[in-house]
Amino acid sequence: MQDTATFQDLLREGADASVDGWDFSWFDGRATEQRPSWGYLKLMAAQMRVAHAALDIQTGGGEVLSEVPAFPPVTVATEHWPPNLQLARRALEPRGVRVVDVAEDAPFPFPDETFDLVVSRHPNVVLWDEIARVLTPGGRYLAQQIGPGSNRELAQFLTGPREIGDERSPARAAADARAAGLVIDELRHEALPTTFNDVAAVVHFLRKVIWTVPDFNVDRYRARLADLHDHIRRHGPFVAHAQRILVRAHKPEH
């Protein structure tokens, strides 16, 4: 029989945890996600070392960008969600990075051919035409993007079967990049185990990674969360698979 008090406590714990920024340390001991083999931070740091002007799109709280040892002479980051914007400015502006408030679906407020490097980790929206516009001739784009049906096992447990569209597929990314005038240099896709040890971790994850179940809230999904709690108690941690895509592209010389 379900331990209702424990279930309620876990729901409350997951619902009360802060979702500001992209610091995932709250999940230590409660959930794990395997990292892609390519090592995005290492790749980005190497590109930053040889760039003159770099743009990081949808930087979150600046957690990833702030780990880069050295920035180009001009480095700019965009973010829009107010809590993340504040975190990013605190983390990055003391190191000379300008953090600009730009909505994820809005045109970039930068002149044409401003940056020789554009990067992004887990952008929710990819504006290929804007990326191509602000890149200098020969400039490079490096991104780790969310793949199609990321953590679909978790989403389908809560919502039932759903069709996985192609809007985040590698083929779609390549087609959209080429349509914007970019040349694809590398395109890789990996499915990575994501393990949830309790339902509090599930609740916090779904509040933080909102595209997994876009209409998620605890009250709406309480019954299925109870089923998931029972599933974890009976069978052990729940395993889903994060989908990640590495995209490396460049803008041709005139």
From TrEMBL:
Pfam families: Methyltransf_11. It comes from the Bacteria. InterPro entries: 23S_rRNA_MeTrnsfrase_RlmA (IPR052939), Methyltransf_11 (IPR013216), SAM-dependent_MTases_sf (IPR029063). This is Methyltransferase type 11 domain-containing protein. Residues 55-142 form the Methyltransferase type domain. PANTHER family: METHYLTRANSFERASE (PTHR43460), METHYLTRANSFERASE TYPE 11 DOMAIN-CONTAINING PROTEIN (PTHR43460:SF1). Gene3D superfamilies: Vaccinia Virus protein VP39 (3.40.50.150).
